[in-house]
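W.,

You were right to be curious about this one. When I first looked at the sequence I had no strong expectations either way, so I just let the prediction run and decided to look at it fresh. Below is the sequence, 319 residues in total, followed by the output.
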Amino acid sequence: MTEETQWLREAIELARENVSRGGRPFGAVVVRDGRVVARGVNETHAANDPTAHAELLALRAAGRALGTPVLAGCAVYASGHPCPMCLAAMTIAGVERVAYAYSLDEGAPYGLTSAPTYAELAKPPEQRAMRLVHVPVRAEGEHPYALWAKARGAGVRGTTHVRRHVAAPRSCVYRALLDPEAVQRWMVPTGMTSEVHEYDAREGGHFRVSLTYDEPTGTGKTTAHTDTYHGRFAWLVPDEQVVQVLEFETGDPAMQGEMTMRFTLTDAADGGTDLEAVHENVPPGVRPEDNELGWRMSLTKLAALCEARHRAEGAEANP
């Protein structure tokens, strides 16, 4: 049995269980890296919520579990063909693959098909039963979009993407990502000192770290010379991936908001590890070039630490 068949069978079983509880026969499973991130069943009648479809509830749960609304790398397995609403939501979230077990035609005899909705949306707007009308009203005061941009620091949240080769196996690098002593040594840019206050390296576990400038000229986000951040481990795949959700402890709106850090490890041709670090939803108050430089400094330290440990382990194994 393929993994895809396994996930679809699970979605079908969720649908059956939902029927036994008085719900509609729809279930959905969100999977990433071969693991279930979230599940959902149709709760439209139980919650009196027309949007509480199985796929949407699974997406919401997946976003909470991963600490991000961006579900790149995820696949959704649904018991039935998704409706246009769910399909649009999965597209917006960045879901990469959707598979379903029962077609629109199979649901039609039971009145369980969204084919009429697809047909309605395929019509020109002026021919649809629901009228979509643009009424260009302008209320007094600041434009809400401009107000939103200002509240977020008059900028767009960014993404920093850095790759680094490490001449050590994935297991060694993975350990260094979760070891608080190692993190205190490598996850700090040159010119700063790290203090790990808490580091519970398990899914759902919390961490808190402070980075203090060595020179008094450095300006901190939390205090005069210190950046403190806290968060949780959202996702751990041994020797493959670490996903953390974090935020700065700051009163500056331009520095506030949750961020996601994703470390992905793959085997390199030389037997080492290719590390990809992605820092998403970076606040607009953080200069992209500064953030990238800090990441490159830190990953250089990580590589040096892992390579030294790997050499030492090899020397012990072959005295």
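Here's what jumped out at me. The chain has nine helices and eleven strands. And, maybe more interesting for your project: The mean pLDDT is 92.

Coffee later to discuss?

I.
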